[in-house]
Amino acid sequence: MFKKAAYSSLLIVLILMLLSGCGSSGSGSNAGSKSTDPITVKIGLLKNVTHAPAFIAIKKGYLQDRLGANVKIEVQGFNNGSDFSTAMATGEIDIGYVGPSPVINQYVRSKNIKILSGANNGGAVLVARKGAGVTSVKDLAGKLVAIPTKGSTNEISLRLLLQEQGLKVTTDKSGVQIIAMAPADTLTAMKQGQVDAALLPEPWGTQIANEGIGEIAVDWDQVPPNKGNYPLTIIVSSDDFLKNHRDVAKSVLLANQDAIQFIQHSPDDTYKLVSDELKELTGKGLDAELIKATLSHLSLTTDIDQDALKVMAQVAVDAGYVKGVGADGLDLTGLYDLSLLKETQEGK
User: Fold this and answer.
1) Which fold has domain 124-228?
2) Rounded to two decimals, what is the model's pTM?
């Protein structure tokens, strides 16, 4: 009788221990912060210094540290946001850094992309060619102005600048003509007197000014909307990736925060790291003084100004880049998933 009771008691204790072990699995403070299954994360970014947080997250190892050793990182650089958005829509990349305008365009077309976090506000300038007779925005009437790509965030800012001065975009000299060309080609075109002005992400405007080709007509902190305080570089993810790998996406946001803090606290160490990453992406690094000038024209932040993006989205609609918008206007509520950003900002 005693032996039977003792055996029963021992069995109950063992069962309770097993249940306790199952209940405590993964309950630590870091649970869910790293993927447990081997995966490959395909990260996209643009080859611009305005994407410095991405460069630092890679070069300092913050991404790998946050993701864990079982995650393989593949980085793909793009020349513009349109190519980035196409790559995300086709599954070539999972998550990455880009400007908001191409993302808004893709969202309206396919609804398969989410904005997760900010990385940088501002960092574009309006530079005018010397001898073009442009010292203010009003002087752009009858001029040819370059932007990196059609429908880009830079073009949206340019159109807002023109609206503020009552200028219209036209295909002749009755208004302002806009032409899309790569920033490097814009620099050459200005040398040859073929382009009068350009709204470009840094460091291109500063480089054009430093080479004596042009002068900054509108500095970064006067470019609309919000006088430079608008999202220029954001982190986005495909819906499928976010659904299947929220823990990995959160780790990317944490690495982004790490990178921003490093840039803010160690600017001198940042210049070489940014140049090294640019060299890997483009085959050519950048002078430290140009990187320094660019970083002084950025407002690094993880916050997302949804009101500013709404203004920019409406400009894209009016310009014809966003199709199929009904009478009720553009609804962007499904474009955002800022829950992971909130968690990282609150230290969860």
Assistant:
1) D-Maltodextrin-Binding Protein; domain 2 (3.40.190)
2) 0.87
